[in-house]
Amino acid sequence: MPNTKTLEKTERKAAKRKARAAAPALGERDYPRGSKKQKLKKLSRGQSKR
């Protein structure tokens, strides 16, 4: 994406939109959504968990 610091707001928005449209698609993920999040619910209980 070009440096947009010198552009007006409308031009900046158009430049960013154009850059987003030109970016390649990410493709499908090969893992379930949310599976890489840290699971902290029970760990945060501390001593009572053990």
What does this entry look like structurally?
The protein starts with 8 loop residues before the first helix and ends in a 28-residue tail after the last helix. The protein is mostly helical and 50 residues long. The chain has one helix at residues 9-22. The mean pLDDT is 82. 28% of the residues lie in helices and 0% in strands. Residues 1-50 are annotated as: Disordered. Residues 1-13 have a biased composition (Basic and acidic residues).
Summarize the structure.
With 50 residues, the chain is an all-alpha fold. It is 28% helix and 0% strand. The chain has 1 helix and no strands.
Strand content: under 5%
Distance between the termini: 51 Å
Please give the number of β-strands.
0
**Per the principal axes of the C-alpha atoms, what is the gross shape?**
elongated
Average of the residue pLDDT scores: 82
| Alpha-beta classification | mainly alpha
Helix and strand run: H
Low-confidence stretches: none
CA gyration radius, whole angstroms: 21 Å
What is the number of helices?
1
What does the largest sheet look like? none
Q: Give the helix level as a range of percent.
A: 25-40%
List its salient traits.
50 residues; mainly alpha; 1 helix
Produce the secondary structure layout:
Blueprint: H1 9-22
